[in-house]
Predict the structure.
Amino acid sequence: MLRLSRLTKAILIAIVGFLLIFMYTPLFVLILNSFNESQISGWPIESFSTKWWVFAKDYQPIRDALLNSVLVATGAMIIASILGTLFALL
Amino acid sequence: MTWIVGVYIVSLFLLLITAFWNVDPFTSLVSPGFNLENFKMVLTVPAYIATSIRTLLIALAVTAICIFFAVPLGIYMAKIAKPWVRNLLAVAITLPLWAGYLVKIIAMRLVFTEEGFFNWAMAPFGIRGPGFSIPIVILTLTYLWFPYMALPVYTAIRQIPPNLFDASSDMGAKGFTTIYRVVFPLITPAVIAGSVFTFSLSLGDYLAARFTGGATQMIGSIIAQNINLNPPVAAAYSMIPIFFIVIYLMVARRTGSLERM
């Protein structure tokens, strides 16, 4: 097994911890901002509300866009699977 | 196969042809023809040269940072962490790949904006973020492409047989020497394979620069600006990143690491 000193292990753990913070802070901030009452995004968020989620649920262009995304993704998936399989058979 | 040729090769070829076309300076009308003016412009106008070099340096910096963090992460995951920690980390590293690309860019924008999370969190230490600039573009691109580096490096470290470490320590090598003399040479192919992704994806990106770079321009930003105004120049300019990537792939090929991808 790879033997490392305590200090080296501590440094490795610190780097891993830093990476996880770096990777998840932006997503966390983004998700919390979707519950922000105010229209301008910012930090810390002023007050909690599900206003924008309700807005997104009822707003027709967003619903259309969601449907289009699903259709495009399905189409791309089907074509890519077929082409990928054919390519592998060659 | 014909499909692949049709879709990829023909469209690239059309792009190359367009690069030689003429554009009327007054009406912006494009007419087929053959001239080298567009290439001359791309290779001699200082703003274009500066942008090419800036983009190249950004892509190299992103690759370097990814390597710098992927190696310790890989060593920790593969050789030190308990199995459940390892599996958890593997999921944690891959999970952001399923978050949308634009979503992640906007998330970085929210963190580093003037009134954003970073300035808020660092205020007690008297640190202020640099605002939207090249360092933030580099960070954003690192954030976007890091899993492409971390996963091959982790896999490579995991495949190193444990008895190599025993042998190394029997020969009297300490932990660091083992990492430097045994682990590094064995994972070089994986690092190069990962760097092909981080490098080429960073080179072609322009949305990160647009949303988190302030006034920073990359090759992609200039191509996107010209694509309606002056398609031949955009086409000629798009040959620059292709050229960089071809050079990079040729160098990577010489090391023999592409066969293992």
About this structure: The two ends of chain A are 43 Å apart (CA to CA). The helical segments of chain A are 6-33, 51-58, 60-89. The mean pLDDT of chain A is 86.
